[in-house]
Amino acid sequence: MQFPKKAFVIVIIIYFLLALTGLYNASQRPALPMSMEETAQGVYLYPAAGKGQEDSLAPQLISSLDHYAVEHIYQANAVINRKKIGDTVTLCLQGDGAQQVKLISYYGFWHLFLNFFIGAIFFVIGGLIWWNRENSAERLFPYSGFLFGFIIIMNWGGIQLPLPISLPLIMLYFLSYPLAFLTFCLFSNYFPAFDISKADVKVQGQRILVAAALFSLPLILFFLRQTFNFSLATVDQFYLIYRLFRFIILAIMLFALIQLIRNLLRQANPEHRRKLHWVLWGVFWGSFPFIFLWNVPQIFGFSPLTPEWIANLAILFIPITVAIAILRHRLFDIEIVISRSLIYSIVLFSLMIIYLLTALALSALFFNRFSFHSPLASALAALFIALIFNPLKTRVQNQVDRQFYRIKYDRFQVLRSFMARLERLLEKEKVLQELERAFQMAVPLEKQETFFVEKGGLVSGGEEVAKATQFMEWFRSHPAGERGRIFIHPAGTERLESGLHFVGAPLPEPYLILIALNAQSGWLLGEKRSGQRFWKEDLDLASQMAAAASAQLEKIAFMENYLREALEREKAEQLSAWKSLLVAEVAHDLRSPLNAILFKLKNLAHALNEGKNDWQNTALEIQKQVRRLQNLIQSLLAFSAIEKGKLSLQLIPLTIQSIVGETLDILQEAIERKRLKVRQDLPPSLRVLGDAQLLQEIFLNILSNAVKFSTPGKTIQIKGRSFLRRNERRVEIEICDQAGGMTSAQIKEAFEPFHSRQTPRPGEGFHLGLYIVKQFTELMNGEVQIKSQKGSGTTFLLSFPAP
Question: Is the per-residue pLDDT at 756 higher than 50?
Fold first, then answer.
């Protein structure tokens, strides 16, 4: 049941055109120019009477119609349906001879127009809902609406057009009839809150299509048999199947109504309950005449209790109320619409009577006492009364609101707006703030406060709540129960509507009401600014809002726990992978310098034994390998400190020129060996607020990479500047090399541990340098960024706060 929009629109247009073809077919259905009534003796004919002759013509029993001994109206209609409008039939009445009667149209213009109008409304509303639906459950009604529109417009006309046109139309009619009710039954099962996947909609659509085909197949077969092998026996068989078919249809409709009632009883969401109220009202009042006044009597062989056009017109309640429920339910509440309209009508009608009598009395006073016989007197009297009655009308309206409604807000509108905003909030503090704000807009209070008891016993809320030790001890020890439960201050009972009773609680002053959100949080309400009591509607609204806020808090807590567990799981997996990689790297990278040292020591011992003088080179090589081993261990220690969060900082003003100079001294030998040029543009006054050891480690890792990957004779450039960002003085250091550069993929993973700028080679180390750079930089409130392209060098941008 899923189609692309354009294809779906084309299908619906074709379906509508077929319905119009069926309507034309129905307009050609013939009938006798007299009415018929079925009794136990047979079918009686009521001849058409002229004006004033109604009582002079008695009904006569039909003996035969076109030589068929008809005993039921449906048999007579079947015989007549084989004819055309304008044809004649042979009619034999009991005690009378045969006569030729010319057939007229069965349906009048207004009947056909009404069917077209009702069916077109189904099509229009179905299209509106299909275009504006919010979920898959709401999408199911348009399919049902289009099907209902088709069968109502087409109506039953028999075979009046050529067989190649009429037979497919009738088969489609028989298939659409059960399909419309089955689709509506599926809609009632899911509406309003369930969202169905496309796969489920497709499966359910296929199932009801098969069910509709199985229901309609016997009807189609017996109709074809009646058509091509006509006799009263085949007519009786078809009618029997048709009655059974109609009984099944009514059972499906009643089952759909039961499903809607079940959904209403299970639904806690007030907005969804209001949608269901609208649909239930519409289905009940729309289907009652159709089921109990039109169909049920016919199933049991009686005449309908209401004309067909009334039953069809009542069906309009269904699409209209469904459209309100889905598209415009936010603007209306069915209970308020019905009750307020009734009460206002009575009150305003009474005011109009009083207004009219007063105006007439004043007019009479002008005429009789002052002899002022002019139309201006009536106008002045009406104007005077209008000036008096306008404020009176406002006061009466306010009195009606106080007596009958007592509230100025639309509770369901407040809830709908609150819940719409609530769903977008993902922080518990903002949820509590929105709860207070939304209720304050509807019911202004002198004071209100939400609080949250943390795991350590700390209270997130106002000072008054935190200081109310007796209340907090009670709250911690007393289980709040279900969310939305209301507790009352012992002295606050008189501030509630009479007849309301709640459990008492030692609430802090000046609060009257506590509404539990959950076991850790609550909502305290003070007095209303208007000085009025809390009405039941106010407390119902507060309780429902509290329940919705509590549900959102639970949702946030679940999401936080889920994300925390996911992050911990991801980190554990990452650490496990790092551990495996680290063990492999340590085994190789620590062994390489140790093997080199052992080998050089053997050479050194051999040279000393033989008295050779080239031991100095061997000692330098040993020193180089020891330094390499020291760097590897230092990287491991830094990585461990970062992961454990045990790094200690000492932030002091540092001169960049000095730190960079010390770092270059460490790398001087490697720089000279590669004949690299280092250009510095660092003002002597350029200083940052940082830790000296961490800052030197940052420069050492970046510059050693630049030296390592640069080819001989290239240039490394170091520049620095001071700048102002959002009223904060910062220092930027730019380090550029002319090495091979990095790809976007390499830049993306550069700051991850155990990744290399280039393809890793044995003995290159753990590739922790840039990871350490990023962590150390962020620890000092700094930022680091890489700009590079493959083959054009790499630039590191470092930014730190200035002292």
Answer: no
Residues 6+ apart with CB under 8 A from 478: 505
Q: In angstroms, rounded to a whole number, what is the distance separating the alpha carbons of residues 338 and 383?
A: 33
pLDDT the model gives residue 559: 81
Q: What gap in Å lies between CA 460 and CA 144, rounded to an integer?
A: 52
The first and second tokens of residue 679, run together, are 């250009």
Structure tokens at 731: 């220092």
- Determine the pLDDT at residue 298: 75
Distance CA 275, CA 284 (A): 14
Residue 315 contacts residue 287 (beta carbons within 8 Å)? yes
Omega before 192 within 30 of 0, i.e. cis: yes
Q: Hey, what are 797's tokens?
A: 């941008």
Contact 435, 545 (CB under 8 A): yes
Report, as an integer, the average pLDDT of 289-304.
77
Give the DSSP H or E segment for 721.
strand 715-725
Q: Which residues contact 707 (CB under 8 A, 6 or more apart)?
A: 667, 670, 671, 674, 676, 716
Q: Which amino acid is at 719?
A: K
Structure tokens belonging to residue 309: 């056009």
For residues 283-320, b (16+ Cβ closer than 10 Å) or e, as one string?
A: beebbebbbebbbbeeeeeeeeeeebeebbbbbbbbbe
C-beta neighbour count of 389 within 10 angstroms: 17
**pLDDT exceeds cutoff 80 at 553:** yes
Q: Token pair of 619, please?
A: 């000692």
Q: What angle do CA 114, 119, 120 make, to 5 degrees?
A: 95
Band (pLDDT 50/70/90 cuts) for residue 338 is: very low
User: How many alpha carbons fall within 13 Å on the CB side of residue 638?
Assistant: 24
What is the reported pTM?
Answer: 0.47
CB atoms within 10 A of CB 411: 19
- What was the pLDDT predicted at 237? 93
Most confident of 259-263, 600-604, 771-775: 259-263
pLDDT at 336: 46
d(CA 108, CA 523): 66
Q: In 3D, which of 260, 320, 310 has the Cα closest to residue 290?
A: 310
Q: Do the Cβ atoms of 793 and 735 come closer than 8 Å?
A: no
Tokens linked to 243 = 């009655």
3-class DSSP assignment, residue 192:
coil
Helices 334-369 + 375-400 axis angle, to 10: 150
**723 vs 720: CA distance, rounded Å:** 10
DSSP string, 605-661: HHHHHHT-S-HHHHHHHHHHHHHHHHHHHHHHHHHHHHHHT------EEEEHHHHHH
Q: Are 186 and 51 in contact (CB under 8 A)?
A: no
Sequence-separated contacts (24+) of 335-341 with Cβ below 8 Å? 335/277, 336/405, 336/410, 339/404, 340/404, 340/405
Q: What is the CA radius of gyration of the chain?
A: 45
Extract the tokens encoding 740.
């091979």
Given a cut of 60, is residue 540 above it in pLDDT?
yes
